[in-house]
Design brief:
By secondary structure, the chain is mainly alpha-helical. Helix content is 70%, strand content 1%.
């Protein structure tokens, strides 16, 4: 029987292993979401150079497989859109001027909000991967660095919004126009600590105009001193100031329903009485959705209270390890909720665990 020389045998084995590697990489199913993706890592394809005829040791073969699977996994993750975003048009890409400087405008905020709306379906780390990938497709250098800095500020601002909103809901029963205005003022004050005046105007001016208009509408609709003719005139004036088309029937209906439900909550003394009034005012389906919202808020407060009891027991035995606090949060809350709870803890305890 003819025997292959040892060197030829080594080349033959290496060639077979290489074909096996290509087969496995080409046909192995890659998980749709790779949880190990880090937001800071640029998502680019890195083809592995293979020198034909060179023997592959086991470690080298593993390197080929892992590097190729990592790239395929990232590509698969980015290609797999969260369910809530599948039928939503993608946001406009950020732009630069002739000098290559970032143009800060509402397009940047809308890009952030587009992907952050999927929080809950995906953890924050994966949402940030998507946002940073989109930024990297159209920006580079200083413009990309500035956009990433604005993203970090925006994440902090969203966290502050949740904290302020939660506090106002907890401290105030029902809804009042004065409370809504106070909450709005608190949010804008927090925002002013994170963004420059120029960036605030560029990112949020249009949104602020619509928010001011919505509150103005509620105030006019709740003003019992106005007759119908005066009310319509005031609504038209508010719409003109905001540059809003009053022909939007859904906008009018939403404002009226919010004002009406706020009044129902203020007048009702028992949950059953509130539910009956909601059914009469809005119908059974809408009343059930409002009740579900109220229940979700109550469950959140209950979970937060249970977490705080356990946290207080940890604080009673200093020093407190950050890992223990984070583990406690992970037990009680989702990834998105943990960010909110961390902000509440920092506000109440003055510590960042």
């Amino acid at each position: 029987m003819h025997m292959l020389p040892l060197r030829s045998l080594a080349f033959a084995v290496a060639g077979g292993l290489l074909l096996l590697a290509v087969y496995l990489v080409g046909f192995k199913r890659v998980p749709a979401v790779v949880s190990a993706v880090q937001p800071q890592v640029a998502i680019t394809a890195k083809p592995v150079a293979i020198i034909k005829g060179a023997p592959l040791e086991a470690a080298a073969l593993d390197s080929v497989l892992s590097a190729t699977q990592e790239d395929l996994g990232r590509a698969a993750f980015l290609a797999r859109v969260p369910a809530s975003l599948k039928d939503v048009p993608p946001p406009a890409a950020p732009a630069v001027n002739a000098a290559g400087e970032l143009i800060v405008d509402s397009r940047l905020r809308l890009l952030f909000e587009h992907y952050l709306s999927a929080l809950g379906e995906e953890p924050l780390a994966q949402v940030l991967v998507r946002i940073r990938h989109q930024l990297g497709l159209s920006l580079q250098g200083e413009a990309l660095a500035q956009a990433n800095a604005l993203l970090e500020a925006f994440i902090q601002y969203r966290n502050q919004q949740d904290i302020i909103r939660s506090d106002y809901i907890e401290l105030n029963a029902g809804f009042s126009l004065e409370q809504a205005r106070a909450m709005q003022a608190a949010m804008r004050m927090a925002r002013g600590q994170l963004f420059s005046v120029a960036d605030t105007s560029a990112l949020f001016a249009a949104q602020d105009t619509l928010e001011d208009y919505a509150l103005a509408r509620v105030a006019i609709l709740q003003d019992a001193s106005l007759n119908e003719s005066q009310r319509q005139a005031r609504l038209a004036e508010a719409a003109q100031v905001a540059g809003v088309d009053r022909a939007s029937t859904s906008d009018r209906l939403l404002a009226r329903q919010l004002a009406a439900d706020a009044q129902l909550q203020a007048d009702a003394h028992q949950p059953a009485q509130l539910q009956a009034r909601r059914q009469a005012a809005f119908g059974t389906d809408a009343a059930q959705r409002l009740a579900a919202r109220d229940q979700a808020r109550a469950e959140w407060q209950a979970r937060l209270a249970r977490y705080r009891v356990e946290l207080e027991s940890l604080l009673a035995q200093p020093p407190v390890a950050s890992a223990l606090v984070q583990s406690l949060r992970a037990y009680h809350f989702s990834d998105a909720e943990q960010l909110r709870v961390a902000g509440l803890d920092w506000q109440d305890y003055g510590e960042r665990w």
